[in-house]
User: What shape does this take?
Amino acid sequence: MKNLVLLGLPGCGKTTLGRAAAKKLGMGFLDLDALVETRAGKTITKIFEEGGEAAFRLKETEAVAIAAAQNGMVISTGGGVVERPENIELLRRSGILIFIDRPAQQIAQHMRTADRPMMEGKRQKLYELEARRRPLYSMAAHYILESGKNRRETEKKLCARCRHILSPAEYCVIGDPIGHSLSPEIHMPVLGKYLQAASYEKQLVTREQLPEFMRMARKKLAGFNATMPHKEALLPLLDEIDADARALGSVNTVVNRQGKLYGYSTDGAGFFAALKEKDIFPQGKQLTILGAGGAAAAVAVKAAALDAKVTVLARDMGKAQALAGRIQRAVPGALPQAARFEEIKKYAAKTDILINATPLGMAGTGTSFQDFDFLDALPRSAVVCDLIYKPRPTELLKAAFALGHPIMDGLPMLVYQALLADELYLGTQLDMSGEYHALEASLLIG
Ligand code: NAP
Assistant: This one.
């Protein structure tokens, strides 16, 4: 069983909270500062007096190594444990880290300084520590727990968070077909890091089986993702639907909170989160989207909501117009355009971001663009994106790259929409870029 490790400023309540949580959860408790003192045979104040902070930090790292070798413990750490990256690396190997975020101002009001050598007479020091360490705590922690109005409230929140981490959590992706889905490979490495006992399976669910699946999901699952053909059919079966999913009329993520099912759509947001990583923003830009299917709709509706100007090109003019109509209904004030696919050259000339949301160029389909002449019409600064992630890069992206255009393939969208879903499952913010790069290396999509 993993350890639960509490981080935070001196005086944030880690020791008291940790001891109480351990008791409630039936886990062991370990206080790192106490371990340092026991091993050294002297108080922390004495260690500071004799060898300064450097001597203390060395002893602290030795204690961290001992604590990290335990399992099933609630561990409260000293405020400065984050100063040495090796401490965090050790603690993360066997534990899930929770930052008790209690503002310095609140701590200062209640603080006794006698037993905290670094604080003596220096309340100002606490504010300096907060400025330096808050980013370190936030980066190191899996979860950030904002302290409550009082200790009792914080303890309640901490115990609820710990129970969430420790309880078995079953997730799955449903669809028909589902065999090809990469979702378990994308979700499991993340969920496994943040939860004690998570599982994520592929589940074949036909249209007919969806109502029965929903009854089971309500009772048993912590959440699930949905792909074809369920994204639209799920809407009337949910208790709550978020704004993006409602605007798009499609759900790809469902979270079970105490038996209530909440639906979200992270597809469009995933695409733009991936673009943001490249410092590309849609606001005020002209987006030209090829295709008018599900993926095109997710990107187009979110783009309009983010104040981009959207043009949809489809081989079936009726479908392009239907998507433009949907954008208008979802985002009042948006002025999307619809045009025929053959007019691509004309629209390319006015494009800032071109997005292929058709299967043209996808491995196994045998389809491809007739030519890439339309790239010559694109302004040189225009970004070219392909939602296809097999192959990486597509012929379209190779041609665009050769002409000097910034490009983005479909893998970032695939991973970012999953990471956004994981944030909803876990109730915490992820290091999107870090997780993406770790997954990109492991997914080995060529
Ligand atoms: P979809 O709902 O079937 O839509 C496909 C769109 O492409 C339709 O507008 C379709 O037009 C058009 N199209 C198909 N063949 C065409 C051709 N030969 N010439 C011109 N247009 C053509 O599929 P989707 O779910 O939106 O997926 C579209 C693409 O995005 C696929 O390559 C898929 O792999 C990719 N995708 C990527 C992600 C990601 O996370 N990266 C997520 C979803 C999808 P008609 O309606 O006239 O057939």
In short: The CA atoms of residues 11 and 111 lie 7 Å apart.
